[in-house]
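Batch manifest, entry 17 of 40.
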Amino acid sequence: MKASGAPKSTKSKNVTAAIAGLSACATHAVPGASVTLSPSSTQPGFLLVVNLLNVPGFAPVSSLIIGGVGAFPLPAPLTQEDGSFTASFVLLQAPLGAETLRFTVGNGSAVTTVAVTKPLITPPTLTPKPPPVNPTAALQPVLETQSLTIVWSFYNATKQWSLFDLGPDLAEFNSISEMVSGRIYWFKVSENQTVTLNGKSKTLANGWTPLS
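Output type: structure tokens
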């Protein structure tokens, strides 16, 4: 950090006072202005907290420039009586690497840098699809009600219909060898019922009901 318009580092000055004909000399230290950022490195879109110390009290912080772009709203906020100032802001679009931050405080300025890092891309969490299930096992809750007449399915990728029927007349034509999650199936049952299929509660109406 470096500052202008304010002491750049701690300086000492001799002060002499005379009282009742006696004199004394003491050293008065003037601390230099400082700027700290938290965190010192960040990604675009994240929050930055800036702390100024040892700047003029009740002075307007009239600007904060990040890479040539202003970040403070108007009217300008003021520093505290003790010469401190704290503010937070979101670092928007900024090139990667060291980015200069310049603060205008009263008639002076303070400069520091922040390291802009590449945003971390978190890959989406994929929910695995349940594996295909044998139709007899998948339809067991419906089969137990002895109300299932037939199940049809149309697979759009192949433009083909397939069926599942335990009746003796169509058993040899059964072409549904597995139940695939997400595929549409048409159920024909002889009575209204609510059963658990693929871990979810499903309502089948007397007649035809599409389910996936």
